[in-house]
Amino acid sequence: MNSSFLLHAGRLGLLGAALLLGSPAEAQKTSATAKTQAKAADGRAGLGAIREADLRRDLFALSDDHFRGREAGTLDELRASVWIAEQARAIGLEPAGDDGTFFQFFQIQRTRLTAASRVSIGSRALVLNQDAMVVAPVNAAVTAPLVYAGTATPAELSKADLKGKAVAFVVSGQPTNGISYRRYLTATIRDRAAELVKAGAVAVVVVSDARAQDIYDHWGSGYERGRYDLPGGPNALVTTQAPTVWLPASALPAVQAAVGQPFTARLEVESFLYPSVNIVAKLPGTDAQLRNEYVLFSTHQDHDGVRKPVAGDSIRNGADDNATGCAATLALMRAFRQQPARRSALFVFHGAEERGLLGSRYYSAHPTVPRQAIAAVLNLEMIGRNAPDSAALLGAQRPHRNSLDLVRTAWAANAAGPKFKLDTLWDQPTHPEGWYFRSDHLPYARLGIPAVMFTTLLHPDYHTPRDEPATINIAKLAAVTRWAYLTGWAVANRPARPVPDPDFKLER
């Protein structure tokens, strides 16, 4: 309900009380009561607990070099998680993880090439993860003559004898269907390699062109680490398919000169299980019935850890991604602790988000509260950069929207609070980044739980060492936090939980 309406109604009530009682003292007492009730109804006591000083302190603490980028499956992620749990305890929240703790541990499976793996072209041995990247970890033992296909099309290659050969081609072209270049490049390498293997190739060598080189430099360190998944997931599977080796653009002359010489790959895969963790806390609601339902505030604490230096800095501190979401969630804890709502508030910091939404996939499959009791999920992901007056709500338009009811509540909260200009392009299925599919609301939405994502979108420092706390707009971070609070407060206090859209179906 609109707070101005409540305050207006309160003033009318005061006028009537004064006329009936005829006593300034009684009227003053009634006025104080009405103001308290109105304040409770619109959540302003909790709103006042969201302070920029707290956000700044928590942001800088979590994105400090001390936590070494909080990489999933490492002690750095675990140390950061313990720090977050201690903040929750100090704020006064109840543990809602496993066995009466703030923690829900789960395993992630890492599959990578062993240090003994080798690749060579002609007489030149390539240093893996420096001179070459193996696109997917595979067990392979290949020695085959190298042929060079350049930028030949699949139709042109269909006429060539590729059986038993290692085929090198230059990846080129531009996306034409609205997807990002990174997604286009990944799909092109995958599809071209599959076509060549179908034509008889026993290995594929991909050489970057100038544009692909940017992706090779920026994302290549991910291949060094291998693949991650929950145990038994599709990315944990090991195959004996033909290997695909990706080279930088500078390797093109050497590849052309090596035509007819042997390409050799001796690849061995190893797999490990690592611990990761979700941090789960709750604040019980005040209503005897509604307290058995939960408004889930979602974020993730992990980032990319320590990688190859860029301009002398090897630690990817992930201030915006996603220390901003964590600092905001701690502030939301203080707000609901200051003023509890009718429904319970549940706060989940998901581990291993950067590894494929692993923590949210695990928690949504193994929630520590009844899944059917989760009324809504409000996810906070990268909320501290870009224009100070703009933000975005993902899951607000079809086909990503799974609850118009929840979206309208969030829109009303924005209108009553920060009044952001809301970007709508990033939520469209045609947007090249596919941003809706890359954060922790997604597993819940797939289960039919009303879910939205608050974000201020990507920027040039995304997933680089330049994503530092000094770059964060603290005032904007506070404004987005208040927007999420007003949305959650409204959901937590209304009589009925948000209604899911009955025909929700994602495009992928």
TrEMBL record:
Swiss-Prot/TrEMBL GO biological process terms:
proteolysis
The UniProt entry, under InterPro entries, shows: M28_fam, PA_dom_sf, Peptidase_M28
Single GO MF descriptor: metalloexopeptidase activity
- This protein's superkingdom? Bacteria
Q: Describe the location of the Peptidase M28 domain by residue ranges.
A: 278-482
Q: Gene3D superfamilies per the record?
A: 3.50.30.30, Zn peptidases (3.40.630.10)
The leader peptide range reads 1-27
**What keyword terms does UniProt attach to this protein?**
Signal
Q: Which PANTHER family match?
A: METALLOPEPTIDASE M28 FAMILY MEMBER, PEPTIDASE M28 DOMAIN-CONTAINING PROTEIN
Protein name per the record:
M28 family peptidase
> What is the organism field in this record?
Hymenobacter persicinus
